[in-house]
Amino acid sequence: MALRCVGLLLRNEMGGLASITASRNISTSQVHHKVLENSPNAYLDKSILNRYKKLDIPHDKIQATYLWIDGTGEGIRLKDRVLDSVPKKPSDLPKWQYDGSSTYQATGGNSDTLLIPRAIYRDPFKPGKNDVIVMCDTYQADGKPTPTNHRCDMQEAVDKVLESHEPWFGIEQEYTLLDMDGRPLGWPSSGFPAPQGPYYCGVGADRVVGRDLVEAHGIACLYAGIDFAGTNAEVMPAQWEYQVGPSLGMKVADDLWVSRYILHRIAEDFGVVVTFDPKPVVGQWNGAGAHTNFSTKAMRAENGIEAIKAAIEKLSKQQEKHIRAYDPKEGKDNIRRLVGRLETSSISEFSWGIADRGVSVRIPRGVADAKKGYLEDRRPSSNCDPYSVCNALLRTCLVE
């Protein structure tokens, strides 16, 4: 099946621009072969690892993969340790340290940075049934949170409102699959596919790229214990979305970070790169967001629409604060995406509406009809820190 190429501008993962003007037909098999050529991980024989996974490990030994967020606010780091007992709760796990000077979080002369376990998940990559993934937050040598540790702030807000308001969150995580050259997966090497239109929730080899990877991710997340709600192909080819939640309190943010790690790990096996860049391709292509659904006990109750509108009124007065909280670069990434078109609002103006995807905050049609439910904040970028996003919503709508 051939893909029609058109001349546009491509913004690669490093921020560069390449002018592409050639127009010719390239088969998807040629494209796939090129992807594999440039991806060392895709050439590795996975059956070799599977041979060792079948070995019996002593029953009193488990493997724990500690995850944390690095100093960029976007990168996930990890390392494994072997434990002598099965942890039932995060406090059963030992605290640990790592070299913060290698993760943009400390200097070489005082580099030990503390990991504190906060949430436990089953590990879909290790062979033992008790092996775990451990989501951690990070602390400097003086005991203060690292600058990119936004989890502790969200936890403080949740503790204040959990019992009285029962906040629920659901996040729609969009992302794009790339080849090793930084081009969206399956796109012709010297051009672009046909314009947006047939790809959203599409089916067919000429419309969808990477479904096997996407479905493997969903299965692995369900195994891990993530509140994984579903997935769909998005508006741009090679762009996908999955949903996490709805979950009470802290869980959705922990789940989202762990689900991102699982996605990156599965992509390693396929020899594919995952990007959460909010605008990976310049031009008339949709960007990528992390639309965040938020509700409280009052919003979910009869006539909860009034509580929803009251929250929107509070949000309308804090546009700048939320834009800063909604991407790791305090708006500098999102400014490429929130342009007032392509299903986005303007980054500089707050707006809301019913069933309108071009606003800052949307009330879904079903919510408006039922007069209760939730609101959808459409401003967070795909590379947002969910701790920072959820914390901002909690503090604006419930705490401050």
Automatic annotation (TrEMBL):
GO terms for cellular component: cytoplasm. GO terms for biological process: glutamine biosynthetic process. InterPro entries: Gln_synt_N (IPR008147), Gln_synt_N_sf (IPR036651), Gln_synth/guanido_kin_cat_dom (IPR014746), Gln_synth_cat_dom (IPR008146), Gln_synth_gly_rich_site (IPR027303), Gln_synth_N_conserv_site (IPR027302), Glutamine_Synthetase (IPR050292). Keywords: ATP-binding, Coiled coil, Ligase, Nucleotide-binding. It is an enzyme of class 6 (ligase). GO terms for molecular function: ATP binding; glutamine synthetase activity. Its EC number is 6.3.1.2. Homooctamer. Belongs to the glutamine synthetase family. This is Glutamine synthetase. It comes from Hermetia illucens.
